[in-house]
């Protein structure tokens, strides 16, 4: 590989005064002269004697760690020797969750390139924005997703070559062209703070932001939540719905399994609630990752058809209502691991293990991080009062070329944009996004607690609550509800639901308006898009 280094991303990172402070723990990764996350994870697997164990699974094949190592090595040689890519070049990755997508991602990062993964459902306009910002040299794309990428490429023609692969087979163009290269133990000698990936936000407001993560960031995150909360074993078989293009999915369904030597099962088609439960049976799944909405939809199926192998279920991506937690617990007999993380900090930084769950709380700050709940002046608020969450740890926000860095990082602290309360024991209770707090007639109302109350009524399948401008009260509480079969919208049901909330919460928190909708607007990762509801 050439000694040349593409400094495009590094040149656009925030200046030192806008960077977050870091706590890297005792692993010493930051002190190493060279550090490559893919190399380090394979070396960990080898040291533990797991190379011949299953790593990537589907209904069609099982790829061991040793086989994956060889394929990643060949793909790396193809990218650097045939395509002549150099360290720091960006590579656009486009595909659903699959063995092929995982291997391509590992190869890209393995040889010092910067992975730019994109959600499969992005359209040409959205892809064009990602391409324009990240300026990738090459694109690796699932054949079934080519159309939108080629349309985007017409608008931003910086990609020199688009190479296809097949999610269901290891016989795509890149694999064929890579097969002529010998397998070897070569890895790029990247430095700890070299950029490994650009993670684009879902773009719920404004243009998408590109959060840069280093090899050190990713390995540091492995020493936090996976080590102290998840505690996966090499015998675990992991499944989940979050896309690998989403850092929640990338960590849970690729990076963290490598850290523990576990294996991952990828479906042949996107999951549906019933088919996911069925595949969990067939794959003997032990750990599951998905969003609260999906758990709620899966509950009746797993209750009728229990999965005895399942031992851990992880929820993240949106607020977990206690009603959903209890519904899943009743159906699966498992206490859910809740967590809050962010694209900017790579993964989960507030969570608790099942044996330490406290009703209504997400959990405590994950070991390796520190967190505080503060007021607008940066002063910690008393326990029980609502304030902004700020976080420091082994990961931190580094937006590439974006003035919004100043909003996210202040005084070395990361501000994820969430409002929390903390109790005397350090448990953190999510209230809302800091721009979603509803202030009505002088009272603060957190949307999640109203949503949780509504979900406790048998008529409500899903719901979302926002603050709507109101001349008399400043704002009023408005709910959007998706009803279960057998219930019809109308004034009578609205009155019943309002009284139901009044019986569970302080009267001023009840939704003064309720609209009935067929579905709620969500991102591809399952995150509720409240801003779209506010536009209605």
In short:
By secondary structure, the chain is an alpha/beta fold. Helices cover 31% and strands 23% of the residues.
- By CATH, the superfamily of the largest domain comes out as ANL, N-terminal domain
Terminal CA distance = 53 Å
Number of strands: 26
| CATH topology name of the largest domain | Rossmann fold
Please tell me what the overall shape is.
globular
Q: Helical stretch count?
A: 17
* Fraction of residues in helix: 25-40%
Radius of gyration: 23 Å
Tell me, what is the CATH class of the largest domain?
A: Alpha Beta
Let me know the largest β-sheet: 9 strands, mixed
Q: In what order do the strands lie side by side in the largest sheet?
A: 2-1-10-9-11-12-13-14-15
Features:
536 residues, alpha/beta, Rossmann fold, GMP Synthetase, Chain A, domain 3, 9-stranded mixed beta sheet, 4-stranded parallel beta sheet, 17 helices, globular
């Amino acid at each position: 590989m050439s000694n040349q280094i593409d400094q495009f991303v590094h040149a656009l990172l925030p200046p030192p005064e806008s960077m977050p402070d870091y706590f890297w723990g005792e692993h010493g990764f930051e002190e190493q002269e060279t550090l490559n996350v893919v190399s380090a994870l394979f070396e960990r697997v080898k040291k533990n004697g797991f190379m011949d164990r299953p790593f990537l699974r589907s209904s069609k094949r099982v790829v061991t760690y040793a086989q994956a190592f060889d394929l990643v090595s060949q793909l790396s040689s193809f990218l650097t020797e045939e395509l002549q890519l150099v360290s720091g070049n960006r590579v656009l990755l486009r595909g659903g969750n699959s063995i092929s997508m995982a291997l391509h991602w590992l190869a890209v990062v393995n040889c010092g390139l910067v992975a730019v993964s994109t959600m499969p459902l992005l359209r040409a306009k959205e892809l064009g924005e990602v391409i324009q910002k990240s300026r990738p040299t090459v694109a690796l794309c699932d054949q079934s997703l080519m159309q939108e990428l080629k349309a985007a490429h017409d608008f931003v023609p910086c990609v020199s070559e688009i190479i296809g692969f097949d999610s269901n087979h290891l016989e795509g163009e890149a694999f064929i062209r890579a097969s002529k290269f010998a397998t070897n133990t070569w890895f790029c000698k990247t430095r700890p703070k070299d950029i490994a990936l650009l993670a684009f936000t879902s773009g719920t407001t404004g243009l998408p932001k590109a959060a840069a993560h280093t090899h050190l960031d990713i390995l540091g995150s492995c020493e936090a939540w996976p080590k102290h909360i998840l505690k996966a074993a090499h015998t675990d078989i992991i499944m989940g719905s979050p896309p690998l293009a989403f850092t929640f999915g990338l960590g849970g369904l690729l990076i963290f399994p490598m850290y523990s030597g576990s294996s991952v099962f990828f479906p042949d088609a996107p999951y549906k609630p019933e088919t996911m439960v069925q595949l969990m049976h067939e794959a003997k799944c032990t750990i599951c990752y998905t969003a609260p909405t999906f758990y709620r939809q899966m509950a009746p199926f797993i209750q009728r058809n229990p999965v005895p192998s399942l031992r851990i279920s992880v929820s993240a991506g949106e607020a977990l209502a206690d009603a959903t937690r209890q519904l899943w617990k009743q159906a699966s007999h498992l206490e859910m691991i809740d967590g809050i993380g962010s694209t900017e900090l790579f993964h989960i930084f507030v969570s608790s293990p099942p044996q330490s769950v406290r009703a209504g709380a997400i959990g405590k700050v994950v070991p390796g991080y520190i967190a505080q709940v503060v007021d607008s002046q940066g002063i910690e608020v008393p326990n029980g009062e609502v304030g902004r969450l700020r976080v420091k740890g082994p990961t931190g926000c580094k937006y590439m070329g974006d003035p919004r860095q100043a909003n996210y990082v202040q005084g070395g602290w990361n501000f994820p944009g969430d409002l929390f309360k903390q109790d005397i024991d350090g448990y953190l209770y999510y209230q809302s996004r800091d721009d979603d707090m509803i202030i009505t007639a002088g009272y603060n109302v957190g949307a999640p607690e109203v949503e949780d109350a509504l979900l406790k009524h048998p008529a409500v399948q899903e719901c979302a609550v926002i603050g709507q401008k109101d001349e008399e009260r400043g704002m009023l509480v408005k709910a959007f509800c998706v009803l279960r079969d057998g219930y019809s919208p109308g004034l009578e049901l609205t009155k019943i639901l309002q009284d139901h909330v009044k019986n569970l919460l302080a009267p001023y928190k009840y939704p003064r308006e309720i609209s009935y909708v067929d579905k709620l607007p969500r991102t591809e990762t399952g995150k509720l898009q409240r801003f779209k509801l506010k536009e209605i």
